[in-house]
Amino acid sequence: MTQTPPNHMTDIQNQYPITSKLITTVKKPSWLLLSLLFTLILILTIQLTTNQPIFPTRPVSNMGHEAMHGLDTCDGLVPKRVFKKSILEYGGVGDGVTSNTAAFMAAMVEMRRYEGRGGAQLNVPEGKWVTGSFNLTSNFTLFLEHGAVIMGSEDPKEWPIIEPLPSYGRGRERLGGRHVSLIHGDGLTNVVITGQNGTIDGRGKMWWDLWWNRTLEHTRGHLVEIMNSRNILISNLTFRNSPFWTIHPVYCSNVVIKDMTILAPLNAPNTDGIDPDSCTNVCIEDCYIESGDDLVAVKSGWDQYGINMARPSSNIIIRRVSGTTPTCSGVGIGSEMSGGISNIQIENLHIRNSAAGIRIKTDKGRGGYIENITITNIRMDGVKVPLRFSRGADDHPDDAWDPKALPRIKGIFITNVVSFNSRKPPMLLGIEGAPFEGICMKNVSLFGLRPTVQWSCEHISGFVNGVLPSACALLQRNASLTCT
Q1: 75, 201, 277, 293: which is the annotated catalytic residue?
Q2: What are the transmembrane regions (predicted)?
């Protein structure tokens, strides 16, 4: 928009009706009012001509744009790349049968040449593109056009074995290494995976069968894993049938995951939706998830390996996420949390037909901490246990875990929660010798429970106000509670 000269009062009245009202109602403005009026016009003009917010916002992503367009959404803008090609130009065949692993690898070799020259974009057109695992590069966009489906190879050899994560010490399911993810990246900057609601399908049934049949030799691969990277955007796609956790950013910063649909059969084992792991500055928003495990799970390493690495997950926003998981929780924190988890904001969720709503999971041997967790504006329908704090999973990487390594949990703020057709009361079970402290609940209503049921509480402390049915005695009633 062209900037309006300050002496054209008629044009100002047309463009800025609020300012116009001030002008027409003040016949003899003072110099102070004129100064205020000029400042207002200047602010409005800057905002309209630059399309940038006037007041600073908290950064989450940093890819050449303001990180957030306000306080309730994260940056989802896709940067322009100087070099663009289609997978067709590398010999790709989208017939749903032909392997395109070599085509994707060849494309990434060329895309890598443009890392420092404005970046590159690989377009995947309509079709079914079978491929094994391939690695991304920096300053790169993978763009799936409408009708494009990337399909994971059903040959396990096309999912090579890589080293275990240092904060886990071994594969999460089996000793030793692990299968690489279908789409993988390590040590990258400025990476985008997006499109026109195209699909990435891991075709995970082969892997689930191995798990069910107890013939799995190595830990299954993720659908997408980005490691040791920063400035990551994943948006506007559908992810299906991941062999294991679906989206796994680990040791990353400035990550935005938004406008995603993530689907897996409800009995598919460990098909978590989004698992930020030892990450900082993460925004997850406007996603729909159906899975056989947690919709979103925040993690930070496993027992002594996570303690030694000490890479926490912090400054994470999870909002406007909906979905269902009959075996697990809408949002889980842990159970691998040994590097520490803090400053997590969870808001505006809709969780239905699930085993748990919000769950904090930990154990002896984990060490670490969970602090400053804010949970607000949550709706649950048909959730078995709306609020759950768990312990004692007896799940450790090896025999070297330390039973004296107790987690610290402090500052859990829960407000404005309503659950319909609840089947069990909250289960809030801390750890002996390491009680969960500073639990604050306000305006929590759980409907559908029998009048005689009682909360299950051990080794916790805190306060409540406006909680129905009445909480356990370990959570004392405080009428002046603000939970802030």
Answers
A1: 293
A2: 31-49
